[in-house]
Design brief:
Blueprint: H1 2-12, E1 15-19, E2 23-28, E3 32-38, H2 54-72, E4 83-87, H3 93-105, E5 113-116, H4 117-124, E6 135-140, E7 145-151, E8 154-161, H5 165-180, E9 182-183, H6 186-196, E10 207-214, E11 220-226, H7 227-250, H8 254-263, E12 265-268, H9 277-285, E13 289-291, H10 298-308, H11 310-316
Parallel strand pairs: 1-4, 4-5, 6-12, 12-13
Antiparallel strand pairs: 1-2, 2-3, 6-7, 7-8, 9-10, 10-11
Helix pairs in contact: 2-3, 4-10, 5-6, 5-7
Length: 326
């Protein structure tokens, strides 16, 4: 049976999926990260309420997974790929079952393996999570920030908050609306964040022109914004992320704290690329902070390492009750 499973795995092009809120990354065994595309979410743009729930939401997830699997897996459909999916640490048993069922109906081989995003990110950046020492990973994605203390291949404590990259963009939109009566879109807000946004004072502050629509006149309008004011606009959501990190540190067992002092905290996810965020967190916590070499693909790379080590996959797949806070 093991031999058959290995043969099928060789021909199936096993797939690891980082099913993120903003983007989905797909890792194919032997090829690396081959796909990064926006995740599909059905929401009402006016109210920001999710439109698709229950069976309808499952149908959307299934269709999205089928699209990604078929796009990267061009071999015979007679052989289904083994699939590993990274999921938030706060996922419920019902949600786990829904993701697994959706993936299997989309063409994945049963069983579908789920791994918690913080564990996948830690594996992806190369942390020695199997050791009895403590490791802290802070993954700032599009919709959520996942903070976890990991030791002996398990999560000792984790905290997940729904404040991340999207909220940083919303903070920029809100600032320009309130200060300049200027309406901009999410894409423009993200561009501002990337070009002049920061979490910590920069050596050389800068500015940029922003085009949008004047709320009062309804006409196109151009203004100039500074990096200082954008940093101030980002301060509120960043404060919430810092508070979550403090809570995680307070809940970390004393015997693991010394390891964090020595090794520091690891930043992953797209939010890790915000200028000066590592300096801000280090200043607020008194601990060294390191940015992952490739923070955007950390989780996807972690799923890839699972695919290369089936024993690791079976041991660390979501199947145990860990200490968490949601």
């Amino acid at each position: 049976m093991i031999l058959v499973d290995r043969i099928l795995g060789f021909f199936s092009g096993d797939v690891g999926i980082d099913l993120g809120t903003a983007n989905t990354l797909v890792y194919v065994k032997g090829q690396g990260v081959v796909l990064c595309e926006p995740s599909v979410v059905a929401i009402d743009r006016a109210t920001h309420q999710v439109l698709a729930v229950g069976e309808e939401a499952n149908d959307i997830t299934e269709a999205m997974l089928r699209y990604f699997i078929r796009k990267v897996h061009r071999k015979s459909r007679l052989v289904s790929p083994r699939v590993v999916i990274a999921v938030p640490s706060g996922i419920t048993e019902v949600e786990k079952r829904a993701v697994k069922d959706s993936a299997e109906r989309a063409g994945a081989r049963s069983p579908v393996y789920l791994v918690e995003e913080p564990i996948a990110a830690a594996v992806g950046v190369g942390l020695p999570i199997h050791e009895p020492s403590g490791n802290m990973i802070i993954d700032i994605g599009g919709g959520t920030t996942e903070i976890a203390v990991i030791s002996l291949s398990g999560i000792v404590f984790s905290k997940s908050i729904r404040i991340a990259g999207d909220e940083l963009d919303e903070a920029v939109i809100g600032h320009l609306k309130k200060t300049y009566n200027l309406m901009i879109g999410e894409r423009t807000a993200e561009e501002i964040k990337i070009k002049i946004g920061s979490a910590y004072p920069m050596e050389e502050e800068t500015n940029m022109e922003v085009r949008g629509r004047d709320i009062l006149a309804g006409l196109p309008k151009t203004i100039t914004v500074t990096s200082e004011e954008i940093r101030e606009a980002l301060s509120e959501p960043l404060a919430a992320i810092l508070e979550a990190i403090r809570i995680a540190l307070e809940r970390t067992p004393p015997e693991l704290c010394s390891d964090l002092i020595e090794r520091g905290l690891i930043l992953a996810g797209g939010g890790a690329l915000l200028r000066g965020l590592d300096k801000l967190i280090s200043e607020e916590t008194g601990l060294p902070v390191h940015i992952a070499d490739d923070p955007l693909t950390a989780i996807a790379l972690g799923t890839g390492r699972y695919l290369s080590d089936f024993r690791l996959l079976k041991r660390l797949a979501v199947n145990s009750q860990n200490s968490k806070e949601y």
